[in-house]
UniProtKB/TrEMBL annotation:
Residues 3-64, 69-132, 145-207 form the S1 motif domain. This is S1 motif domain-containing protein. Belongs to the CvfB family. It comes from the Bacteria. Gene3D superfamilies: Nucleic acid-binding proteins (2.40.50.140), Winged helix-like DNA-binding domain superfamily/Winged helix DNA-binding domain (1.10.10.10). It holds the Pfam family S1_2. PANTHER family: CONSERVED VIRULENCE FACTOR B (PTHR37296).
Amino acid sequence: MIRIGQVNQLVVTKEADFGVFLDAEDYGSVLLPAKYIHQPVAVGETMAVFLYFDSDNQLAATTDSPAAQVGEWGMMKVVGINNTGAFVDWGIREKDLLIPFSEQRGRLSEGQSILVYVYTDKASGRIVGTTKFNKWLDKTPASYTRNQKVELLIAERSQFGFKTIVNGTHWGMLFQSDIFGRLFVGKRVKGYIKQIREDGKVDVALQRVGMAKLDDLSEKILDLLNKKDGFLPLCDKSSPEEIFAVFRTSKGTFKKSIGNLYKKGYITIESAGIRLASVKND
């Protein structure tokens, strides 16, 4: 089945000096211009191409990779504005993506980089973009469980932290107190469900919550200690940046974990770092 606005695997049916023709099934043949062909191909071979409608509403193929396909979000730069809406560069050389004025949550300006959702307009059949995400997210109550691992897309900055899109389906809130490392709109990160509030809203975190979080980090600390001959030059005096660079976690969580490991007798804490309790100084 041919999917317009997405990458398709199409068979080469004819070669020409100016490109190759591909079998687009019910859409007939589509030309892939020679400038998009980066290695020799022959009739009968299959090629991965992105399909879209050009400015003349004709089916076109390219090997360019879009920032987002239909049904996806991607960061794009506004390259022009006219009386129809704003146009963004979505990675397709021959055609910019239109964001109609009716699909803009606040007026856009040229040069601005924004997060865009790509979809097919049912009325016109055109591929367009939107910055109004609510209607594309699931409104049914989320059924996530605490500490469930999820994919997070940083979607919007808030006075409380960041609004995120959870697994491409629900809004989630990442509060400032749970943020560490560098985050920005458009970044995709691994995360965990913190809680489902009574009003159905989802709170997320960048690391496991509670003891499950500490247990996970403790395993990482012990594993790295074993790989580093029993000693790591990190302790409760180390900077948040040093700790994050090694364990991708906050200093507070790291301190709790090494404190837990110390109480259980797994490690000793020294002024210069931490050491496996079974590893003695020479």
